[in-house]
Amino acid sequence: MEGMEKIKRASRRLGLVFRWAIPLTPGLVALFWYLVGQNNLIERQLPVSLDPGLPPLAKVGGFAVSMLPGAVLMYILYQLGKLFRLYEQGSFFTRANVAIFHRLGWSTVAWVAGDFLHTVGLGIVLTLHRPAGQRLLVVNFTSEQALGVLAGLVLLTISWVMDEARKIEEEQALII
Question: Whole-number mean pLDDT of the chain?
């Protein structure tokens, strides 16, 4: 039983971390955009070089665009919080666990799509104030995004295998 108590304790802690991270996400994204124009390290993370005197509306647009993958991340954190709450309750291979893994798989793929659109959107938002001919449309698919799609597919496969194993276990429990 000691092992189960360790699992419950670790799950409770991780669940708290995920639940606390949800409301922190928009605040950290807002802080990032507040620091844009003040910190060269921050600006290196952007897909385009910034003009001096970036309009405040561009920063607001940057925040909005950044919340595309940010919102998906918040949903992923929410699902992880639910998963670890189930683990804390001693529930490991139930229909609810399978459903969460399935949603995590699709959410990971959605995060990649949001990240792709984030790059495109930032290129538009951060250069919209420029004169015609100097605006940029940035399209970029990175190896990290490809890895994200692969991770999502792995999670979907794990959820499928878990569901099949759960069904087999339920069938065997009915056999006398």
Answer: 93
